[in-house]
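User: I'm writing a tutorial on reading structure tokens. Could you give me a worked example: one chain, its sequence, then its tokens, then a sentence or two explaining what the tokens reveal?
Assistant: Sure. Here is the example chain.
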Amino acid sequence: MSEASPFNLPYLEEIFQHLCRGRHICVEDGNIYFALHDNAAAFQDLFNHLGFEMEVHSRDFYYFKGGKSLSGRSEKMALFIFILMEYLEGQGESVEEGILTKTFSISELPHFSTERYRGYMKEIGIEDSDGLAAIVSNLDKFGFAQRRGDIFRFRSPIYRFFDICSSIVHEGEKSDSGEREPIK
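And here are its predicted structure tokens:
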């Protein structure tokens, strides 16, 4: 009996195109998610042979592992999320619950509400709501959010930014306490 061709995997072309473009695939993506989820080992093996490393996040979404450093676009998205998380925490809200359950309006975001936030945004070249809209568009493009006009909400892949923020805070705490990372 011959083994099935890995090229017969359902939605292979569409899944590969999405992942190559940096998109994160989660349950909200419907058929392509279920094809990937149900055949994860076969997809992972095929992608490894093609030189790609597909990650399966513990929150059940998929993406191709990138480089160690953040791109300029990723840095903008990370700062955007960092500010929103800090703002929600300052409002006494659960950050995770707020990010994952609320719908946000670009025109009502807190990113220009304080001098400090405006300074952070200026450092990354964002000085108005059009710049914020561009960041939200990128969050949508890469599967972190779903945007409809001025309104958007986050999707489960936003946990990647939670992970990044958590590791930055953890590294900052280590630095403050004088701990050093072991040399590898």
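What the tokens reveal: The beta strands are 54-56, 62-64, 103-105, 145-148, 151-154. Residues 72-90 form the longest helix (19 residues).
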